[in-house]
Amino acid sequence: MPLDTNLNPYGAWFDGNSRRTPRSSQASGSRSAPPPSLYGVLPYVSPNPNQMPIQGGAYPNNTPSSPRPATTELITFYLTSPSSPHAHANSQSAGVNVLNCTVLDARSSRVQYTISTDNSLAGYTVFKSVLDGRSVGLIEWGRGKTSVEVRGAVQKQETKTWLRVSRNQTYRTMTVRGFQYTWSPDDQYINLCSTGPTSTFLGRISRGDETVVIELTPDAIQLNLQDASIVAAVLLLCGQNID
């Protein structure tokens, strides 16, 4: 079914009568954007292949630390091109367009989500669950202001607020259902951790061979961080300026 270009996807979730004409800007190429940082977490600067691009502070000394996970405990999802099978995370290259891809559950090898940035719904990236067809997340791209929403977890807000850069610009914070977490670079990964006196490792993002790999701990699944983590991964790796 073709999408109604006059429908505000946010309104469809919370106000069925809310309609407006979306912006005409495209998230997937019509806007000029600087290249992404090496692993997408920190503010955009000129990439240096031998060093994490950081503005202020020194990584990794200033970033939150967390225990290394037992990889056998991680629940894995692959962001892949719709026509390409997933590959193992053994390469630094990633050919997948995260703004138009599918999300596979490694346990079942089945598609769990679709992520689409459609010309017929200009300015929006929509995350849909294959299980029930519902939209679980939405990014609204705009000039100087990009917004995000995750159903039942994150109210509509600017991406620079939801994924706020730390004062020393070495990690980002993320709030889901009132609880705060961090995303921080760690070697080839972007680690998701809880905050507080004792930081707990909850997951990580990495680049694979023509795929992006999202790995979450059972605790992260129990905390219902799956949808928010997938939306965050797309924002961190999409190459668009989210600040």
Salient structural properties:
13-stranded antiparallel β-sheet, globular, 13 strands, 11% helix, 4 helices, mainly beta, 243 residues, disordered N terminus
What does the model show?
It is a single chain. This protein is mainly beta and 243 residues long. The chain has one domain (9-237). 11% of the residues lie in helices and 31% in strands. It is built from four helices and 13 strands. A 13-stranded antiparallel β-sheet has the order 7-6-5-4-3-2-1-13-12-11-10-9-8. The chain is globular, with a radius of gyration of 17 Å.
Short description:
With 243 residues, this protein is mostly beta strands.
Radius of gyration: 17 Å
State the total count of DSSP E strands: 13
> Unreliable stretches, pLDDT < 50, 5 or more residues?
1-40, 44-63, 85-94
Looking at the structure, what is the overall shape? Answer: globular
Q: Please state the structural category.
A: mainly beta
Mean pLDDT: 74
> What count of helical segments does DSSP give?
4
Q: Strand order, main sheet: write it out.
A: 7-6-5-4-3-2-1-13-12-11-10-9-8
Oligomer: single chain
Head-to-tail CA distance between termini: 34 Å
Strand residues, percent:
25-35%
SSE string, helix = H, strand = E? HEEEEEEEHEEEEEEHH
- Give the count of structural domains: 1
Largest sheet: 13 strands, antiparallel
Helix content: 10-25%
List the helices and strands and how they pair.
Blueprint: H1 9-14, E1 75-80, E2 101-105, E3 110-116, E4 124-129, E5 135-140, E6 147-150, E7 154-158, H2 159-162, E8 163-165, E9 172-176, E10 179-186, E11 189-194, E12 201-208, E13 211-216, H3 218-222, H4 226-237
Antiparallel strand pairs: 1-2, 1-13, 2-3, 3-4, 4-5, 5-6, 6-7, 8-9, 9-10, 10-11, 11-12, 12-13
